[in-house]
Design goal:
Strand order of the largest sheet: 5-7-8-9-12-13-16-17-18-19-20-23
Low-confidence stretches: 1-12, 162-171, 175-219, 221-237, 419-435
Structural class: alpha+beta
Radius of gyration: 24 Å
Strand content: 15-25%
Number of strands: 25
Helix content: 10-25%
């Protein structure tokens, strides 16, 4: 089939929204839905993919029995802990803000820490997904070296407020978060019990009559003003905040999607392009960012960090255990976090994932540094490993296991911690110098063994559009859940054929595919919402989802 719908990119790259060249590589269903049958099909698939430069760009048709009953657009997002995403802009201290970004990075893909590796449905062109999370904001200990206190989906329940000992950290944390900083007790992440976690049951729904907050879509996505000062301590629906997410498949071959997430009440938004490149290497599949995937972009639109932008690059992952049918992920290379637009000191972080040995079990180790850099210079671009960063530039170090516990400490080059003011209910407000970590003292950055994925809320099927992910794949999902694998494969093939028919019709008419929610030009790596996209975000912010079921 000839190329028909092409989105031209100013850089010279093109997105060809048609079938990939060459014949479709199909894998016949073995008829055995058990683990043995699946393993046999996986081995056949690996053999077919040997020598292929990029599996993600192949015309590949898999039997439905190998797929997880989950749309790809719903599966791939970076909001497994939306409460920590919203907390990025809580602090008045720019160092604490980049520390919060690093903490968010380690928790954004909790599904790979506690869940299984799976293959969701392949997205079709024009497919879109949207949903939201209603979560209580994090609170903070009186000790700023301790991690935030999380109130839902954790094995460590938040400590109760205890009379006059209850404090609010008001000078070092922004005013909009003071209402949630209730406890003066430090959080200690010591529980390792994964078999019977005690999940917090704090309510996570918003009031139906809550008004739409001032939506900020700039500068990533148009204009908006954020929240004004008098509303800083007024969260919609009482003690909860809403994080919304919209994504759309903007190319079929290569498979490319655009996404946007926002928490207007915290002045935080995120956008990016998702595209992967995958190749079989020995008995593993190596997964790296595709050419259109330039990383995650976080923008602070209001509050203490207003004007700051964070660029987060993606590391390289390996899917292991293929021939045993017991998949697990290891991570290599580095993630670089760069803060731009800072009003004072400019910070940057290097997160280096340690290469695993060929022998023995994986250890999932990571180390990293937070350092200062000069925004007007380019020398820092060469600092991609911890050892590259000059010692005089390093203000903090961290290390640990990215599937478990990660610790951090300040260094001799760290600036003095800012003064912190505490207010109590029974005595005048004292002032003291906030404790800081010495060169030898470590504190917990995040303990992933105690955290779990926060379920999202999605509109019921009857309210979804035909190309909305759950609605589009409902026939396949229903049959997979009923273990009717043959019928599920037929339903899947019908969706794929419909996509081919629509592509042929566009070719016949000389029409071009136009994304609905995002602008066509994605060359910068930062997708821009269209008017329809902004409307979808606003609608999701207004949704009354008190009675909706949640799903992870």
């Amino acid at each position: 089939m000839a190329d028909e719908a092409i989105i031209k990119i100013p850089s010279g790259e093109v997105l060809e929204d048609d079938e990939a060249p060459g014949p479709t590589i199909s894998l016949p269903d073995s008829g055995d839905a058990g683990e043995g049958g699946k393993l046999s099909m996986i081995v056949q698939l690996v053999k077919k993919c040997l020598g292929v430069k990029d599996i993600a760009a192949m015309r590949l048709s898999l039997p439905a029995s190998l797929l997880e009953p989950l749309p790809n657009l719903e599966y791939w997002h970076y909001l497994d802990r939306p409460d920590l995403f919203a907390a990025i802009n809580d602090s008045n201290d720019p160092f604490e803000r980049i520390l919060a970004v690093v903490r968010f990075i380690f928790t954004k893909d909790l599904k790979f820490v506690h869940g299984k590796v799976c293959k969701p449905y392949n997205s079709v062109l024009g497919e879109h997904f949207r949903g939201h999370w209603d979560v209580p904001p994090v609170s903070y200990s009186s000790d700023p070296t301790q991690p935030p206190i999380l109130r839902v989906h954790t094995t460590v329940p938040p400590p109760p407020a205890q009379g006059s000992e209850t404090v609010s950290v008001k000078s070092n944390r922004s005013g909009k978060s003071s209402k949630s900083t209730r406890s003066a007790l430090s959080l200690t992440s010591t529980s390792k019990d994964k078999t019977s976690p005690t999940l917090s049951t704090a309510p996570t729904s918003l009031s139906c009559d809550a008004g739409l907050s001032k939506l900020s879509l700039s500068p990533l996505n148009g204009s908006g003003s954020g929240r004004n000062g008098k509303d800083k301590d007024k969260d919609r629906g009482g003690d909860n905040i809403r994080v919304v997410y919209v994504t759309e498949q903007v190319s079929h071959h290569p498979p490319v999607s655009a996404y946007y997430a926002s928490c207007p009440l915290r002045g935080v938004e995120m956008a990016g392009i998702d595209q992967i490149s995958a190749k079989v290497s020995g008995t593993t599949v190596r997964v790296a960012p595709g050419s259109f995937n330039k990383g995650i972009y976080i923008n602070l639109t209001s509050g203490p960090g207003m004007g700051e932008k964070y660029h987060i690059t993606h590391p390289v992952a390996n899917v292991n255990g293929i021939l045993r049918g017991s998949f697990y992920i290891t991570v290599g290379d580095s993630t670089i976090v760069t803060c731009m637009g800072a009003k004072g000191v400019a910070y940057r972080a290097v997160i280096e994932y340690k290469e695993e040995s060929w022998l023995g079990r994986a250890h999932f180790l990571v180390e990293g540094v937070i350092h200062t850099y000069d925004e007007g210079s380019t020398e820092h671009e060469e600092w991609t490993k911890v050892k590259h960063v000059p010692t005089a530039r390093v203000v903090a170090v961290f290390d640990g296991c990215w599937r478990n516990h990660i610790r951090w400490r300040r260094t001799a080059a760290s600036p003095p911690a800012p003064s912190t003011s505490l207010s109590t209910t029974s005595s005048p407000t004292p002032s003291f110098s906030a404790p800081s970590l010495s060169e030898t003292e470590y504190a917990t950055l995040v303990d992933l063994s105690t955290l779990f994925v926060v379920p999202k809320k999605v509109r019921p099927l009857e309210r979804q559009l035909p190309n909305e992910s759950r609605k589009l794949w409902d026939a396949v999902t229903t049959r997979l859940l009923a273990k009717e694998y043959g019928e599920a494969t037929k339903a899947k093939l019908a969706i794929e054929q419909k996509q081919r028919d629509e592509a042929g019709e566009r070719k016949r008419k000389g029409a071009q595919f136009i994304p609905q929610y995002f602008e066509q030009d994605i060359s910068s790596g930062i997708p821009v919402l269209t008017a329809a996209g902004r409307t979808a975000v606003e609608e999701e912010l207004k949704e009354c989802s008190d009675t909706w079921p949640t799903s992870s």
